[in-house]
Write a sequence for this structure.
């Protein structure tokens, strides 16, 4: 492409960027909807069938009812403070991460609220200025990307200083000594000992109001009363004025550290005589019961107030800041004391959901790679039909089949390293993206070790915090980058024009979109 054409395209893009971004979001929604499969049953359907209906249901990853087709959460982008709800790909399905990726491209986003899927109005809002008030902030929206049922999703990744709260006096959350159950899917890889990574029933006034004023799951390495065995993290009960590993202040020897990346944590409390704690690997297997027995002394009866906390203790965060770290994927609170059979069925449903850390770069998958720099969010990495150069250019639903094929790649195990990937052209079989003199080309695999190394790239979290970056196997300081609409491998600073630090992080970050062909 000649420079004059570059200039023309940039001017054109400035005129149509808003319309194009909207069209892209819609096209992405349709494309992924066709590939997704709605759930036949969600955790809250299971609870309802067992006579313990959900009174609050929260998730950034999937619908918790088979029929739910509304928003899961809301994001706010830093560039202009605009808000957007992120829904599901189809009723009962996985989050529409493509909509978040498109909305947040070229900037950062935070998760400002997590909607209550029950319709009861118990929507979690961040505890900070502009949220529910307080000293905390909203969590960054794209810190952890994951896969649910083979579809991309994002976690609510809470660091110290992030937390969420909900209170609706008519929301149906159990109060006083009424029985209650709750679960969350969290992570054993992002925890600390700060107070207090909780999800569940809490005080309405953000104060420590005495024994039994809280009934929340805690997941952390915090050893409140001492004498703990192991290093955690553990599933415990925050009942206010203490984290309980069992029915007393003495350490429960049946506790087990839950270190899996995805962890199911459960707590149920009948409000007067009994509680139970359970946990499991959220990807497979059955629940382990850590405790089932009497409530701790001084907590009978319970005095629940009916607010909901996520990511902090109950006496947070109006004048102070949350000290805990943790990850939230999904969770629900129910009215009543669920049976063990219902607990087991919910765990089976969670395991069947397909939580995975797997990137979308699985061998044999077809993908399209979408630019994230604000200038170019309608552009995709593709091969130029007039030569062997790899470039970025627009693709829409009305593009020709040839153009769509040019922008579609088949993921292969890395030709030089199977832990990385290579990209074969979908419409030129046997030809791969490779770099030569640091520029990207589409060329047939000649079987040499040099070609294999030049055509191998390693997937990394996006350098800009969005999507993925593709690191050159044989030049690990360099990543696939678009510069003046042409593909290169580029370092963050260097002697070549395409090594400029300006927009390097954005230019080297790509969204994995539904394949165009």
């Amino acid at each position: 492409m000649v420079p004059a054409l570059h200039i023309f395209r940039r001017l054109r893009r400035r005129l149509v960027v808003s319309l194009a971004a909207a069209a892209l979001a819609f096209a992405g929604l349709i494309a992924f909807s066709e590939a997704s499969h709605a759930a036949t049953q969600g955790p809250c359907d299971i609870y309802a069938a067992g006579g313990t209906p959900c009174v609050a249901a929260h998730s950034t990853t999937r619908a918790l009812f088979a029929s739910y087709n509304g928003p899961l959460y809301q994001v706010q982008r830093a560039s202009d403070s605009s808000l957007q709800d992120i829904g599901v790909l189809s009723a009962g399905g996985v989050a529409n991460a493509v909509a978040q990726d498109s909305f947040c491209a070229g900037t950062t986003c935070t998760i400002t609220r997590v909607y209550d899927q029950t319709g009861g109005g118990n929507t979690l809002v961040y505890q900070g200025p502009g949220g529910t008030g307080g000293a905390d902030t909203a969590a960054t929206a794209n810190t952890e990307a994951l896969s649910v049922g083979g579809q991309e999703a994002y976690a609510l990744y809470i660091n110290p200083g992030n937390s969420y709260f909900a209170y609706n006096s008519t929301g149906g959350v159990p109060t006083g000594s009424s029985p209650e159950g709750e679960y969350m899917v969290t992570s054993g890889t992002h925890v600390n000992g700060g107070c207090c990574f909780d999800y569940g029933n809490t005080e309405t006034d953000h104060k420590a109001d005495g024994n039994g004023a809280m009934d929340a799951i805690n997941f952390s390495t915090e050893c409140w009363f001492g004498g703990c065995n192991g290093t955690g993290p553990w599933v415990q009960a925050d009942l206010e004025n203490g984290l309980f590993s069992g029915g007393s202040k003495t350490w429960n020897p049946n506790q087990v550290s839950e270190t899996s990346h995805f962890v199911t944590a459960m707590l149920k409390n009948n409000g007067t005589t009994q509680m139970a704690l359970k946990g499991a690997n959220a990807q497979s297997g059955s629940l382990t019961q850590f405790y089932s027995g009497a409530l701790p002394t001084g907590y009978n009866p319970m005095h629940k107030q009916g607010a909901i906390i996520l990511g902090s203790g109950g006496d947070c965060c109006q004048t102070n800041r949350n000290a805990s770290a943790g990850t939230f994927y999904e969770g629900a609170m129910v009215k009543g004391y669920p049976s063990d059979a219902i607990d087991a069925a919910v765990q089976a449903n969670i395991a069947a959901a397909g939580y995975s850390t797997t990137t979308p770069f699985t061998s044999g998958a077809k993908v399209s790679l979408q630019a994230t720099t604000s200038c170019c969010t309608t552009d995709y990495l593709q091969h130029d039909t007039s030569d062997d150069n790899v470039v970025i250019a627009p693709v829409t639903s009305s593009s020709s089949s040839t153009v769509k094929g040019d922008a579609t790649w088949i993921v292969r195990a890395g030709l030089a390293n199977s832990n990385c990937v290579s990209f074969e052209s979908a419409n030129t079989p046997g030809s791969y993206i490779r770099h030569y003199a640091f520029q990207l080309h589409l060329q047939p695999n000649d079987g040499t070790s040099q070609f294999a190394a030049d055509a191998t790239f390693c997937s990394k979290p996006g350098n800009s915090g969005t999507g993925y970056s593709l690191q050159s196997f044989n030049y690990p300081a360099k990543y696939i980058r678009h510069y003046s609409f042409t593909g290169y491998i580029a370092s963050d600073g260097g002697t070549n024009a395409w090594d400029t630090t300006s927009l390097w992080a954005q230019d080297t970050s790509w969204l994995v979109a539904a394949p165009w062909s």
Remarks:
- The helical segments are 3-35, 43-49, 97-104, 340-353, 401-406, 449-454, 504-507.
- The mean pLDDT is 91.
- The chain is about 15% helix and 30% strand.
- The two ends are 24 Å apart (CA to CA).
